[in-house]
Amino acid sequence: MGLKLAILASGSGSNAQTMFEAVEQGILDADIRLVFSNRLDAKVLERAKKFGIATCCLDHKAFASREDFDKKMCEVIREHGADTVAMAGYMRMVTPHFLNAFPQRVLNIHPAILPSFAGAHGARDAVNYGVKFSGCSVHFVSEEMDAGPIIIQGIVPCDQDDTEQDLQNKIHALEHRIYVQALQWLSQNRLNIQGHTVHLLPCNEDAIADNTADNTAIPSLIYSTENTQGNSSQHTPKATFLGVEHDERYPLGAMIYPPLERGF
Asked: Which residues have C-beta within 8 Å of that of residue 198, sequence separation ≥ 6?
């Protein structure tokens, strides 16, 4: 069953753009019902209109409280028939009222390897700390900032001369792959939260076979080079290492886990 998706964004919307394109290309099984922003000048609204996607902008400063704003946002999202929410550069925390309206259906992406460097400046904080690796995390949203169960993470080297912008550029390259992948897993009902851990369930190939008529391959796991022997159904998934045979979409030395599936 495809997602009925609302996207929340406060800025340029590069991750939202990736979702638009993934739906158009048949990679992401979703119907994007709405793009919502709290900023009238957010470029994401312009991007959405080019794809014919409905938009709504409400100024949060016009509301008496954060909860009042979120209640109105829930109304708008429901009016557009969405049941899942992807936060893509949405620079506000949502209230318990909002999360209860869409239980375990609100996702976010954060530019750091959570739980490290939560908050508004993940890349900047990583550079200032002098870490050797940084990255990004897609997670379910909880009441605590950047603390919900993690679905997928991408890791990139943080070179000693990297500026905040250098690192952010590397991270963006992975964000645009892993967010769409996480949403596709959700659309396939393959994400099972146990405690604070997200378990990725096996792919039901029969359930998605009808989506391959356009020559889109049935998703299969990408394995690291040491796991290439024997029947693929007996393989244990390994992290996807990107660098030995370098894929120019990704920074050299990047790693993603759980592994991306074919097409992502």
From this structure: 140, 149, 150, 151, 191, 192
Token output for 167: 């690192």
Give the pTM. 0.83
Please give the residue range of the domain that contains residue 187: 110-201+220-264
Do 52 and 136 fall into the same domain?
A: no
User: CA dihedral in degrees (128, 132, 138, 142; nearest 10)?
Assistant: -50
CA atoms lying within 13 Å on the CB side of residue 236: 1
The verdict on 147 and 246 lying in the same domain is yes
pLDDT 10s digits, 94-105: 999 999 999 999
Strands (E), 52-168: 55-57, 84-87, 106-110, 133-140, 150-157
Per the residue annotation, which of 110, 172, 176, 199 is the catalytic one?
A: 110
Told to judge if 110 belongs to the known catalytic residues of this protein, a careful annotator would answer yes
Tokens of 227: 């796991």
